[in-house]
Design brief:
- This protein is α+β, with helices and mostly antiparallel strands.
- The protein has two domains: 1-108, no CATH class; 153-227, no CATH class.
- Helices cover 55% and strands 12% of the residues.
- Strands 4-3-2-1-5 form a five-stranded antiparallel β-sheet, with helices on one face.
- Helix 1 packs across helix 4.
- The longest helix has 50 residues, at 3-52.
Length: 253
């Protein structure tokens, strides 16, 4: 048998395994994102349950309520025995949401605001706790606080030099001393140029309006493009299947 025919037979024997491998990799592209997302949600919900449920009186746990309501029923004893154990995933999340909503409602009132101000005054007098609380509060306000101030549009600006373009976000027109001291006879736009992949840091630029090229994409889509380092372009909806071209390339490897 010649070497060429031997190599041909060897490739034919390996082909079924190569097909299985390629199909497995292509399926992994579909299954992995879904599985990881479900696992993260399941783990996060379990973490909140484990943190919140110890504060709920044992008499109000699901198994105790079911035992109290149906424990003496003949069908219940025949089906479950004398005792029942029920673990409802997400109960702690529900309790946490209800508790947080009530706290927010109280905090918006006059008495709630006065109580918060009094508490913060006490915290400000404790050296280490003051710094810790202040930092956490700033992060929480940045992430969760609802504000009317937001970026108007996404845009392109030439940065760090002409011929190189970067994504930025238009905030407002420059005002006051900034607008007066810039020697340009046109409106000056203040734009925020984020860094990749962390868009919370970046540069505040003041540029003439003619140097700003507005984009049709939304601010959210532009932020995704920045965070993904150019891998996620606008137009791909959440829940879409993986790009067929990517699956096709994997199948060919």
């Amino acid at each position: 048998m010649t070497k060429q025919s031997h190599d041909h037979d060897h490739k034919r024997r390996r082909r079924p395994f190569a097909v299985l491998r390629n199909n497995f990799l292509a399926g992994l592209v579909v299954v992995a994102p879904v599985a990881i997302t479900v696992w993260l949600i399941w783990t996060f919900v379990g973490w909140i349950d484990g943190w919140v449920l110890p504060f709920v009186p044992k008499a109000y746990h699901p198994d105790m309520l079911i035992q109290r309501w149906f424990g003496d029923s003949e069908w219940f004893i025949a089906l479950f025995g004398e005792n029942v154990r029920v673990n409802i995933r997400g109960l702690g999340v529900v309790v946490f949401l209800v508790f947080t909503i009530i706290v927010g409602w109280i905090a918006k009132g006059l008495i709630g605001r006065q109580f918060i101000t009094f508490g913060e005054t006490i915290v400000d007098r404790i050296p280490v706790l003051r710094s810790l609380y202040s930092g956490i509060k700033q992060i929480a306000e940045t992430v969760f606080a609802q504000s009317e101030a937001k970026f108007d549009k996404a845009c392109l600006v030439e940065y760090p030099r002409k011929g190189i373009w970067a994504i930025a976000f238009i905030s407002t027109n420059a005002k006051g001393e900034i607008d007066e001291k810039i020697p340009v006879e046109e409106d000056i736009a203040s734009v925020f140029l984020p860094t990749t992949p962390n868009p919370t840091s970046g540069f505040l630029l003041f540029v003439p309006r003619h140097s700003v090229t507005e984009l049709d994409m939304s601010v959210e889509d532009a932020a995704k493009l920045v965070i993904s380092a150019g891998l996620v372009y606008p137009g791909k909806k959440n829940g879409d299947m993986p790009d067929p071209e990517i699956v096709k390339k994997i199948s060919k490897t």
